[in-house]
């Protein structure tokens, strides 16, 4: 078939972007014969398509292959590769058709059969896929990919042993086959052979340290083995290798949830959602975690994601009804239909809201339920019509799911409707009364849930025999309520089995209503007994369902329910032991614990807690709760232990539970406020502290803790008032004095600050925090010897406290005492450092500690702000001169075009390129380099300049700059996020107004972000809004005569470019500018203008004006 003629001026169909006559047409015109022209066109289109496909440019690749097929319709490789494109796009039917067509024209290609097997597997045709891969092996017995893919199919069919054999064959043929190592590891994991699985995944990582699936698979293996510490470390490495990765954040969240650290779990889910904001499965997972942590307000909102179409949920399907879903609109006089969702337990748990809806004014409520619930729900108040699924429904004003009702009723932990709301029918009670045994204590048992539940293996007990330790207790008649899965296990055991005769939940309710207690796993019976108001002992796995929250032994949904949680995952035996002890107490077989004994247990627990022996303390508190589950002090102390362990969500729940049993205890509210603050629930924390003070107005700790919170919210007036009230209530309260001193420092009243810190020291000369805080006051006064002395005293008293060590480092560097200063400055990334701005990366190679660099590779990892990266990248040339063979500089994205000019850098990477990091000999922080090179004031590497603006950027900005004899750039504010920004930034550009009436100067605003709007209407050229990155800023600065700026990144940028810079500094300036000097050893062209009094910018600006006038008078620029 002759190729279709293509017009010479149209775009070439190969996708190159050139005209046809300048691309394939030009090449085709050289063909001496039509046959050779056809061959050349086929080769060109094939090679071009392959190049596009390998680059991920699938539409262009498809265009090339289809152009080729117009020339040769049966070209097997083109058909095969088109099939692979369809496979990559998820078009599996088309892929199978195209690859089958390729096989029809070339039936001896093992590659084609292998690809066909992959496609058939995605279509769910496992037998056909198996046959395709086997055919590939028949054509090429040493074809490793076919063995690997046969293993994947065997694994999908549950035949792990066959999968392992195929993978072993694949690896014998191709020992470096990374995917096969990973798949073999997954097989061993499924068999529980974790050591072998770990070795496989580690081998895959050794073959390619950047192969992210190996890290993910290794993490899952560690999880399965119960080694959650290693799982966390592995996922964190994977996060570095493949960012941004929603999957890895989700895995991290799952591990943190297993470890009961819900704050971290929620944090990682939020990060995952930042990466994949439209992933409704993620939203649903976040909802469950928020609800589990008791954060109902946000949790119910996210929980609406459960029925989003993208989740393909089969048990939550919105009905097709001719009226709208209720979204919280007023219900007065309206009709509402409640549509069922999820399981029987959900319908029972949330039908409690129907009386509440009636109270909101709903005129007519129809409850639709599953058939087995209909007779039971006949007793539910507020239902005007009861229907089962499938029955005809009349028109209503609204419909709703039952689990959406808490959202629109604004349910919190404290406002859940909890009264018994279901009852058994009298006739059913009579029917079952005669079938129940007589005994002092009748206990119902359920040990398994529905086999189809996705979490059944975790929540159900494998066999009734595990409950056997309970059966030898005299005085108890056990009644089996088990129905379906597991009920046959009741045969031959000492209990009455009724499950087989139960017809619906009205029968179950009639039995439960005549029992004294129900002991069950997490299944519908727990909700049914709770809704009937019967005592329930609920047996929960280690990581229980969100409905039971976390870290508490009671349920806000069912007041009569006691929760027994596994202490270790899978350990039912220990849990049953605790249940048995409780039953013995219930029967009076264990002597009752007296109030005196309970008090002794609490005292002993408190002594252990105060000694830091938290496991021992927790065991004693739980012993108290076994006797008295609602003991408020034991619950409160358990909450404090959770707080001490950093499990703040659990602490909040336990303290709220304690408050629910003793609502007039100010201590409970005070400590609840502390836990809420650490959970970032600041408004609730504020309310808790205020409640504590309402109960006890002279509560010194309450005033102090409220003041700390107010201080963090920058309400200094209120904070000072409460600190003073704390001191008035307890004149010996040392922490309040020192906290008040810190508050005065924050508002600039340094005399009062020093006075209160000194009062704290007078009360306790061993109080290290006061020395540290007093050192900060002297630092703010630029009294460096005194500051150094106080920091050293704080360190001597508390050697393990990192804060005074870091503070001492900063002051030493400010004083130019670099030798000790650089050493102590390594404390900035110590694990115990509060709110660190420098966080070590998790890299598979070690941190540089000054070892010889000759022939070695070094990665420089960014830290702190943009200015720090610019200031310290100067060391790269020096590192090169020491023999470093390869240097990778990792930087923030806005710096990348600027750093392209930096000499000595072999590879420049930005955050999104973490997965490109190769193995290096060492890594280092840039601000650690001066330590390792023993930098002193006189050995700082200084250059006329070490950065350059890109020439093309200079050309671009040249036309934007005003013509003037003297061009001066201005920056008057730093980043609002900087912790010292209020001190270092000018309040408004108007502060520089005295400069604007100087003739012969054109001022150019480089301000970007905070404050740039202040430039409008003033006599200066504003360019900040149009600056895209620091290469733009550099191109502007390079064409200026002078930059006048506050202490922000522009000072470092201009200095690195070798431009004259006048830096306006506060009274107590950053350590980088040292102290008591007007020049900078870091930047020779820099002049420093310091405040002579705290806050006096007017004097600084006046000195700048005078110096500008002197320059203008002399007719020269800096």
What does this structure look like?
It is a single chain. With 1118 residues, this protein is an alpha/beta fold. It folds into nine domains: 97 residues, Alpha Horseshoe (Serine Threonine Protein Phosphatase 5, Tetratricopeptide repeat), CATH 1.25.40.10; 69 residues, Alpha Horseshoe (Serine Threonine Protein Phosphatase 5, Tetratricopeptide repeat); 86 residues, NAD(P)-binding Rossmann-like Domain (Rossmann fold), CATH 3.40.50.720; 154 residues, Rossmann fold, CATH 3.40.50; 105 residues, Serine Threonine Protein Phosphatase 5, Tetratricopeptide repeat (Alpha Horseshoe), CATH 1.25.40.10; 68 residues, Alpha Horseshoe (Serine Threonine Protein Phosphatase 5, Tetratricopeptide repeat); 63 residues, Tetratricopeptide repeat domain (Serine Threonine Protein Phosphatase 5, Tetratricopeptide repeat), CATH 1.25.40; 77 residues; and more. Helix content is 49%, strand content 8%. The strands form four sheets. It has a six-stranded parallel β-sheet, sandwiched between helices. Helix 37 runs antiparallel to helix 38 and helix 37 packs parallel to helix 39. The mean pLDDT is 91. InterPro entries: SEC_C_motif, Sel1-like, TMTC_O-mannosyl-trnsfr, TPR-like_helical_dom_sf, TPR_rpt. This is TIGR03032 family protein. It comes from Methylovulum psychrotolerans. Pfam families: SEC-C, TPR_12, TPR_16, TPR_8.
Keywords:
49% helix, 49 helices, Rossmann fold, single chain, Serine Threonine Protein Phosphatase 5, Tetratricopeptide repeat, 9 domains, alpha/beta, 1118 residues
